[in-house]
Design goal:
It is built from 27 helices and 18 strands. Helix content is about 40%, strand content about 15%. Helix 6 crosses helix 7. It folds into 3 domains: about 220 residues, Aminohydrolase, N-terminal nucleophile (Ntn) domain (Glutamine Phosphoribosylpyrophosphate, subunit 1, domain 1); about 350 residues, HUPs (Rossmann fold, 3-Layer(aba) Sandwich), CATH 3.40.50.620; about 70 residues, no CATH class. The longest helix has 24 residues. It is globular, with a radius of gyration of 24 Å.
């Protein structure tokens, strides 16, 4: 895994600035500490920081084709590069390295934009075509790897992280009000929008062409589902068996290539849930390598899954390590976490994952396989079960089954809504318009958007009346309304939370902050496309989530994990900043009336009242909305301090460049 960046000037008379690219490389050193370098000609400058994983000696970048007409800087992995290389060699292409990077160049030469759908991997890359004077940029189907860009005067800048772009001191630094509104509704911005004015993100599944100072983008792949037929009430046993066997085969192959296609050792995250337990069990059963596993634990028993992690590690015989995180640990590391997250967040969940990837790094590993993506692909989240219940309640308002279904919604919660049925019925009966395309997500979005009540009058005025959900309506696929309900709900989750938050602030940024690459078997496009064609009941059977996964791997997973209720990953929020171990100086400083007024994001009086409430009743007793308010305010203020302030982000150039190519 790596960091990429670059500059393309519209005018050849203004050669790209190598001083700027050095600073941009410095901002991305954590993504690629093994080496760095750049390629420069009269119009373009491509930079690269390398985390060496495949072809350790020959894969240095930027890399060219045979006649140097094409140059590439690449972040990611193409897992089927060996198969593609064999096909391309059969067509006459000559390779000079053993890297997957070179495969991309030859694939572009052979197939043009058609190459993207041939790649099985996770990537963000830029190819400079010297003959045509154009830059080609591309991002993987799910947005696992990031790619940001901006047009500034006569030049186009791009980079793996926004901090690299902000090395250009001429860029205006300001929050985008609509980007903030999306974050405070969906938990993350929806690409191409970001949290910052003038900064754009290439959407997942897109490529772009930059020429003559302009960029045009278009999709090469998108999430799709079958038509309105849906699933029958009961599937024949032969169909269930056939689906299950094909799914098992696909996931085994997906996990295996992500483990074996590497020239450095690969470890695995083991959370204690079924997703990572399955992927780890596959690696233990179907590969011969020694398996190191890593787990995240919490001092607070409400969040801890340690006993399941230990059971699975012992069953598989892995070399196991864990990190135990306290509330104070989260509060102390949070400012550093926000330097990498780069946008406001509403939960502290990224912080413990940052500490987990630090453990992986200090143990000498660069790559981990994780279970991320299973909940989106196989309808594993509570939000899918909740939506199924709400649709049933809307269609059957007087049904005696409603209370019994309520009890099944949140079996992992100590204070499950089923224990207070009158309150639960009232809560889940809101926003039940069956023709609402966002029926499944309205409760979450409404709850999150309540945090915006803390915004300053000026910011609220700049956001205006248009809700982010209504803007999202304009992006719905043409055939969205013909999909079965669960498929519509999954599309919303794919398009908002997955790439906008889980794979970015909680995924790529927290892994790469410690120079660790994450690999995600459940997001193999073959598996995703297969799962999207499945009947609904193979994913969500009644209120049993990820039904096909449990059926396919029941022989590898013990009943204690296979049958345990889904427990989503959570971390302590407000209590991480207001505990019994003394004040956190940075919290006091950033929530002072002076600091809040200067940033202009929040109402100082409201912030003061919320912070006093935390100190008064105790953060552990705060409501869900107040928890999000606390984290949202603190993370926004940290982003303002890190990136917007006059003393905002700057980076030191790397000490030495291993590759400098001037043409």
């Amino acid at each position: 895994m790596c960091g990429i960046c670059g500059i393309v000037n519209q005018k050849e008379s203004e050669s790209p600035d190598p001083g700027l690219i050095r600073n941009m490389l410095g901002a991305l050193t954590h993504r690629g500490p093994d080496s760095s370098g750049y390629f420069r000609d009269k119009s373009a400058l491509l930079g690269h920081t390398r985390l060496a994983i495949i072809d350790l000696t020959g894969g240095a970048q930027p890399l060219s084709n045979e006649d140097e007409s094409l140059w590439i800087t690449f972040n990611g992995e193409i897992f089927n590069y060996l198969e593609l290389r064999e096909e391309l060699e059969g067509k006459g292409h000559v390779f000079h390295t053993s890297s997957d990077t070179e495969t991309i160049l030859h694939a572009w030469e052979e197939w043009g934009p058609g190459c993207f759908t041939r790649f099985n991997g996770q990537w963000a890359f830029a190819i400079w075509d010297r003959r045509r004077k154009e830059l080609i940029i591309s991002r993987d189907r799910h947005g696992i790897r990031p790619l940001y860009y901006t047009l500034s005067g006569n030049r186009f800048l791009f980079g793996s992280e926004i901090k690299a772009l902000f090395c250009d001191r001429t860029l205006n630094r300001a929050f985008d009000p609509e980007g903030l509104a999306e974050i405070f509704t969906f938990w993350g911005p929806v690409a191409p929008r970001t949290a910052y004015e003038g900064i754009r993100e290439l959407p997942p599944g897109y490529f772009g062409i930059v020429k003559a100072g302009k960029i045009t983008t278009e999709p090469y792949w998108s999430i799709d589902f079958p038509g309105p037929a849906g699933a029958p009430e009961s599937l024949p046993e032969a169909d269930i068996r056939g689906y299950t066997e094909e799914f098992r085969s696909l996931l085994i192959d997906s996990a295996r290539i992500r483990f074996t296609r590497s020239d450095v050792p690969v470890g695995a995250y083991l959370s204690g849930g079924i997703d990572s337990s399955v992927t780890t069990a596959i690696l233990a059963r179907y590969t011969n390598a020694k398996l190191n596993t890593y787990s995240l634990r919490f001092q607070d028993a409400e969040f801890d899954e340690g006993r399941y992690q230990k059971e699975m590690a012992q069953r598989l015989g892995t070399v196991h390590q864990d990190v135990v995180v306290s509330n104070r640990d989260i509060g102390e590391v949070f400012p550093e976490v926000m330097r990498y997250a780069e946008r406001p967040i509403l939960r502290t969940a990224p912080a413990p994952l940052f500490l987990l990837s630090r453990l992986v790094h200090t143990s000498g590993y660069k790559v981990v396989v994780t279970g991320e993506g299973a909940d989106e692909v196989l309808a594993g989240y509570d939000i899918f079960r909740e939506a199924r219940f709400r649709r049933f309640a809307a269609e059957n308002p007087g049904s005696p089954l409603i209370d019994s279904y309520l009890e099944q919604l949140y079996p992992w919660m100590e204070r499950t809504p089923g224990k207070v049925p009158a309150f639960a019925r009232a809560f889940f009966s809101k926003n039940l318009a069956l023709d609402d395309p966002f029926l499944s997500h309205r409760p979450r979005w409404t709850s999150s958007a309540a945090v915006m009540q803390m915004f300053s009058p000026d910011l609220r005025a700049r956001i205006g009346e248009k809700e982010p959900a209504e803007a999202l309506r304009e992006r719905l696929p043409q055939n969205f309304g013909s999909w079965p309900p669960l498929c519509r709900d999954q599309w919303l989750e794919y398009s908002t939370l997955l790439s906008g938050y889980l794979l970015s602030a909680q995924g790529d940024r927290m892994l790469m902050a410690n120079s660790v690459e994450g690999r995600f078997p459940f997001l193999d496009y073959r598996l995703v496309e297969f799962a999207n064609r499945l009947p609904e009941e193979m994913k969500l059977k009644g209120f049993t989530e990820k039904y096909i996964l449990k059926e396919a791997f029941s022989d590898l997973i013990p009943p204690s994990i296979l049958e345990r209720p889904k427990q989503p990953y959570r971390a302590p929020d407000a209590q991480s900043f207001f505990g019994g171990e003394g004040k956190l100086d940075w919290v006091e400083e950033l929530t002072s009336e002076t600091a809040v007024k200067e940033a202009g994001l929040f109402n100082p009086t409201a912030v003061k009242g919320l912070m006093n409430k935390c100190r008064g009743i105790g953060a552990a007793k705060m409501s869900n909305t107040d928890n999000m308010r606390v984290v949202g305010i603190l993370s926004s203020m940290l982003c303002h301090s890190h990136f917007i302030n006059e003393a905002g982000y700057s980076a030191e150039p790397p000490r030495g460049l291993s590759t400098v190519i001037e043409r």
